[in-house]
Amino acid sequence: MEWQQLEYFQTLARIQHVTRAAESLSLSQPALSRSIARLEDEVGVPLFDRQGRTIVLNRYGQLLLKRVNRILKDWEDGKQELRDLIHPEHGEVSIGFLHTMGTSLIPDLIGAFRVQAPQISFSLMQNHSYSLLEHLDAGELDLCLLAEPTETKMSIQWTPLWEEEIFAIVPLGHRLADAESILLSELADEAFIFLKKGYALRRTTDRLFEKIGVKPRITFEGEEAATVAGLVSAGLGVSLLPDLRGIDKSKIIHIPIREPHCHRVIGMALIEGAYLSPASQRFRDFVLAHFGRN
Hints:
Keywords: DNA-binding, Transcription, Transcription regulation. By secondary structure, the protein is of the alpha/beta class. The chain has nine helices and 13 strands.
């Protein structure tokens, strides 16, 4: 069965006259008749009672017409939905980002963009890097903001955007709370609160401790940077975090680390060669310009 057969059937069912239906479809009458005959062969029953060139839907045809109307309506709705999605003023942008960006950076970035494009909507996914990349590769995300992908076989186009310093985070009253800066090795005997394995920041902190030959004693692994900071403020351990806006800093101290150089680079990831809607292209260009990378 061909898709056009459904359209021909719907038109003929509405007009109920072969010649006039064929004219409406810019089709010859024999071609329309052959198409309807093939459809009837496909479904196994006659769909019309014929009276010369005038025809009337029979009960089989009426039943099928309900289904065909629904199928064609869904098809038209789907095309309209796609047109809306790719329209540069009314589309949707699907973004993935790291948990540590959810407190302020992503809301601020989207808020600034919506001043320019208030009709564009967003679909947001917050997760760790490898999960985000899987969703990106599956076409479920248009772009991601995350640390540089390292262990992936995907064809990623990654553009660095900014560098974040990573600080030692300690509670008020900690023995190092008044230090202007420290060596990472000075924390070697502390109890640590980290993000779970698989998170970009966790991989970064693991590599930093590997550099100095220390295996940190980890007492808790969380899924949110705000949770980690909260547990540090409660005196349950120390951590390594960027200077995050949007979390309570009244009971924690950020201490710069002199050695090793503690930082991470955050960038934008896309799948090379993947289609980007006009709305997504517009947001991508906005992000690049926002961080001076255009």
